[in-house]
Amino acid sequence: MRIDQPLRTSAPLSRQQKNDASEPIVVIVDDDAAVREALxxxxxxxxxxxxxxxxxxxxxxxxxxxxxxxxILDVRMPGASGLHLQHxxxxxxxxxxxxxxxxxxxxxxTVQAMKAGAVDFLTKPVRDQTLLxxxxxxxxxxxxxxxxxxxVRRNIERLETLTHREREILREVARGRLNKQIAFDLxxxxxxxxxxxxxxxxxxxxxxxxxxIRAWETLPMTMREAGGAWV
Amino acid sequence: MxxxxxxxxxLLHLGLxxxxxxxxxxxxxxxxxxxxTGISIWPPSGLFIATLIxxxxxxxxxxxxxxxxxELFGNALWFHSPLPAAVLIYAGNALxxxxxxxxxxxxxxxxxxxxxxxxxxxxxxLGAGAAPVVSATVGSATLAWFGIFSQTFLGAWPLWWIGDAxxxxxxxPLALVVIQNWKxxxxxxxxxxxxxxxxxxxxxxxxxxxxxxxLPFAYIIMPPLLWAAVRFEFKGAAVTxxxxxxxxxxxTISGASQFAGNAENQRHNQIMLQLFLxxxxxxxxxxxxxxxxxxxxxxxxxxxxxxxxxxxxxxSQIVNMVPVHIRRLTPExxxxxxxKRLVDFFGxxxxxxxxxxxxxLAANIETLVHxxxxxxxxxxxxxxxxxxxxxxxxxxxxxxxxxxxxxxxxAEPLRDEGGKILQWYAISIDIDDEVRxxxxxxxxxxxxSQxxxxLPVHIWSWTPAGKLAYVNKRSLExxxxxxxxxxxTVRVAQKLVHPEDAPEVLRASANCLKTGDAFMMRYRRRxxxxxYRWIEARAQPLRDQDGAIVHWYQVSIDIDDxxxxxxxxxxxxxxxxxxxxxxxxxxxxxTASGKMTYTSKRYLEDxxxxxxxxxxxxxxxxxxxxxxxxxxxxxxxxxxxATGQPFVNRFRRRNKQxxYRWIEARAQPLRDADGTIVQWYIASIDIExxxxxxxxxxxxxxxxxxxxxxxPAMIDCAAPNGEPVYRSQQLREFLGYELEELDGKPKSRxxxxxxxxxxxxxxxxxxxxxxxxxxxGEPYLRKHRLRRFDGEYIWVETRAAxxxxxDGTIVQWxxxxxxxxxxVRMQEExxxxxxxxxxxxxxxxxxxxxxxxxxxxxxxxxAIVANSHACYRWLSAEPVNVARAKITTERVIRDAxxxxxxxxxxxxxxxxxxxxxxxxxxxxVIAEACNLVAxxxxxxxIRIDSDVEGRLPPIAIDRIQIQQVLVNVMRNGMExxxxxxxxxxxxxxxxxxxxxxxxxxxxxxNGIEFPDQIFEPFFTTKENGMGMGLAICRSIVEAHxxxxxxxxxEPHGARFIFTLPIVGKAAP
Lengths: 231, 1068
Hints:
The complex is a heterodimer.
Chain A: E1 25-29, H1 33-45, E2 49-53, H2 56-62, E3 69-74, H3 82-91, E4 98-102, H4 107-115, E5 120-123, H5 128-160, H6 164-174, H7 179-186, H8 190-203, H9 209-218, H10 221-226
Parallel strand pairs in A: 1-2, 1-3, 3-4, 4-5
Helix pairs in contact in A: 6-8, 7-8
Chain B: H1 2-6, H2 11-31, H3 43-54, H4 60-79, H5 83-108, H6 117-146, H7 153-180, H8 190-211, H9 222-254, H10 266-321, E1 325-329, E2 335-338, H11 340-346, H12 360-368, H13 374-387, E3 391-398, E4 404-415, E5 421-430, H14 432-454, E6 457-462, E7 468-471, H15 473-479, H16 489-496, H17 502-515, E8 519-526, E9 532-543, E10 549-558, H18 560-582, E11 586-591, E12 596-599, H19 601-607, H20 617-624, H21 630-643, E13 647-654, E14 660-671, E15 677-686, H22 688-710, E16 714-718, E17 724-727, H23 729-735, H24 749-757, H25 763-776, E18 780-787, E19 793-804, E20 810-819, H26 821-841, H27 846-876, H28 882-910, E21 918-920, H29 922-939, E22 943-948, E23 955-957, H30 959-976, E24 985-993, E25 996-1002, H31 1029-1039, E26 1043-1048, E27 1054-1061
Parallel strand pairs in B: 22-24
Antiparallel strand pairs in B: 1-2, 1-5, 3-4, 4-5, 6-7, 6-10, 8-9, 9-10, 11-12, 11-15, 13-14, 14-15, 16-17, 16-20, 18-19, 19-20, 21-23, 24-25, 25-27, 26-27
Helix pairs in contact in B: 2-3, 2-4, 3-5, 3-7, 4-5, 5-6, 6-7, 6-10, 7-9, 7-10, 8-9, 9-10, 12-13, 26-29, 27-28, 29-30, 30-31
């Protein structure tokens, strides 16, 4: 599996404020202005880009959740709580990594948050390194998810260039079936299968049969199950 | 040759001629009964002569040629003569025909008709007598010379001559008739045909009898022959002769005739036969000609008689139809003839006039002429008859219907050569219409003349040259002149005209005479009494058809009175105008249609003269009125003009300087006796100052009004009895209905509003206080809930104050109603917060307390920690970011302080310090505490009765702590009444007892079970209570140097009492 850009580690992060959309941002949501400021300052001092909001409503209105990065949420807030926002994001298919912060966390709440995929659940006051580690982990997770999504999208695009017959061939090959078997199943000659297969390899930009199968594996399950029939 | 060729007859005619000629030759041969002569009757001679008579001379060679061929052909068939002899004989025959035709034509001219006796005789003598001489001579000579039939010249000649003559007599007429009538139709009637047939049969019968020998005398044939000649004229004669010749020939040839005989008397018989035929033919022809001549004469006579009759009828018609009465008289004057017009006029005939015993003339005149005119007419007629002179006279004649009409009568005598009078011819013409028209004309003329004289004007007429032609009587009377005075026209005219006007009059009249223009002038003319009077003189020319001036007519009217009146009017108008101009307002007048008729001088001075194009109200208004005011003003004016109602307009008008000033214009129509509007008068007054004052006033009012309307308060005005009379917009909008909507309901406006608007829990108190204020006149102040238009109850603060007159009576209540819902709710929230705090202070649960404290403190702590970490990182970064570190540090300090504050606040709850004590009256604190629990009390449906002494002395207390005590105790009391049925009320009383202020809070709960233990810490009767409340309360009260205890309340419930020492006695 190829990744287009290497993941950035925390250490050499640029100190400059970067405003371009690919720069990861750390979204802080806390109703207490002092806490909000302090957390922003801490993130900033770690060379990351913070963005703070007083309520979950404001976050949704700001429309920045598509940008790379992670979220730091206070659990208890007036209006919709942090847990509520997590639930909402999960429902809308946004898998943004979330770090919860609370003054007094109880166990059921923690379990609920972690089950729903939170990166971490921290209590106030929090140690800087603990928080920053969680933030870095969140950003990395986000980057990995995004890179994967990119590969999948590219493979889907390539798959879409295949003809119906080629898709059938690809599916059979991915199942590990021999050319001979495929030819028999489809009622065509083996030479034709080989020809299709070569076309598949070229269109999917796979160097080897292993790469082809990996690319196949990245496709969403629904697409794979549907085989060539879904387009 | 050419001419002969061009006159060639038709070949058909030539052919017929040839055939007839040959046939004639055959006929002659058959009748040649004398052997050896070959000569008998010679029909070709008749045919030849008749043909040439009718044919043009130029065509004769053709006929001669064809005749020659026929003769030679006949010769070859029958005669067998030697050719030279035949040719010679033919030459004689042809010569005979040409001579005969030439002679007949020459004598009778063309065409030959043989209709008169002369013609017949000429024909017989020349054609049948003379011409055969030629033929007989030539023929006989030829026979003799050639010795044919051994004839001698003299022996043959008579036979020859008679034969040719008989041939001409019998055949020529027949040929003429046949040729001339060839194409005509027979014009015989049936009777004539029968007659013709009868004659034919008789002729045949007689001929047969006589020639057959039964009758001894051949000439018996003559009667039928002559009958035919008389009845059928030439045609009949010709045809019967031909028949006769045929019959005779047949009988002779057959030998039955008496002319046939033996050879001895053959010659004699021959001659007899020829003579018989010649005489018969001659007689028949002569008789036919005479008969024809007689017939023609009869015809001519009858035509003449017919023409005469027509002429007479025509004349008679003329006499009867001319539009003139004509009559004929005897020399003695007696009428002998009336024409039809006259008979029609009179209605009777001449015969009916005849009366015995009187002269017809006198009788006629008496009867028919108007009695006035009769004697003179009679005399004139008699005179004319006596002298023979013609007369002419106009008189009236009576018409048949009895009407007399004017006629013009004239009479002339007809004389014979000797000069003797034979007849009188008289005519009379109806001139009645003319006479009457003339009379009417005369009457008219007389009337006109009278009119002209009677008219109170001077009428003169002038010749084109300027001479006076006529002067009416009136002029002469008025001016004291006679007609003679006017002889010298110009001089008299000069003398009559006022010296001042004379030059102009003379100049104008001279000019008019020259140009032909009408003359019109006003000038003064001298009357006979020597006074000058104003006249208006007009002169017009009368022109003929060519446009040349025939006469000038001048009429002069005395207008002296009018001029005087005008003068008076002018002077009065001037006075009026002066008066109007002196008045301090402007006056305009317009006609009913809006035309401007008058503008006062003052108007012109103020506004300036309207420009030339402004002629009516419309234009003037557009010009001077302010554009903003114009539409209203114009609309009102238009309505006024339309309806005829007086109207008033206030608008800005531009004055001469171009400045707009307010004016008030009042318009009033002037009507005549019928009510029709004659004039509109508009008077306008400057009201600028007034308007300014009014505008200022209005502005003030508007300002105030807006103030009231826009104030963020609901304002209400009420009558002295409390009935609302006005509500501001805010209040109306709040309530959602207009004040007027309350009218017509059983409740008064006030009660309606209160019942509908005030919260049911508050309404009793509100009403009570209202009633109190209205009776006492005290200002009103109360907070209560008021129902908003959407049904929600809003907290309001209502204040009302009376507005009084100088004498103190209340005119109006002014009410202001403030929306304090926000405040009340804020207070409520505040109270809730406090309650939370208070509850927390009650330490209902240590864990909860600590959790709460932890949360409160933890937030700033978290911020401090985070900031500190950030600060550390800024400081340890390369390079060091001091600026951010500084900011971070500042935040750390800030957050730390805030954490300390939180802690301090918590501590203050329990701290029994005196620093916070202030000297204040307990009543305020109690009121606040009551307010704090008011909401809860409402929820729990508990009434709080507060009875706080008005003038409690101030005491040194910690307000919050004492409040907490009050709230705590009151809430305990309310909680104690939770399960109690019936009336729930909490009583709060405060009053001075000696040197202390005692406060009692009583409830109607179930009372206290353990009055002593309740103040111990951690003692509680509540499920979730900590038992700390009353302990803390007691410690607070005691810290203030007071006491707190509980008692039983009456009739049931508990009463908590605490005392606080008055200032100065507080414990240290």
